[in-house]
Amino acid sequence: MKFISTRGFDGKFTASEAIVKGIAPDGGLFVPESIPSISKDEIEEMMNMEYYQISAKVISKFLEDFTEAELLEYTKAAYDPEKWEDKVVPLEQMNQYNDREYMLELWHGPTAAFKDVALQLLPHLMTASIKKTGESKKICILTATSGDTGKAALEGFKDLPGTEIIVFYPSDGVSEAQKLQMITTTGDNTHVIAVNGCFDDAQTGVKKIFADTEFAKMLDSNGVKLSSANSINWGRLVPQIAYYVYSYVDLLRREKIEMGEEINIVVPTGNFGNILAAWYAKQMGIPMHRLLCASNKNKVLCDFFATGTYDRRREFFKTNSPSMDILISSNLERLLFEVSGKDASKVSTWMKELNENGVYTVDPQTLKTLQRLFVGGFADEAGITKTIIDVYDRTDNVIDTHTAVGFNIYNRYHQRSKDETKTVFASTASPFKFAPAVMDAIKGAGYSNGRSNETIISELSKESGLPIPATLADISKREVRHTMKIEKDQMEETVKNILVK
Question: Which end of the chain is more exposed for a tag (fewer CB within 10 A), N or C?
Answer without folding.
Answer: C
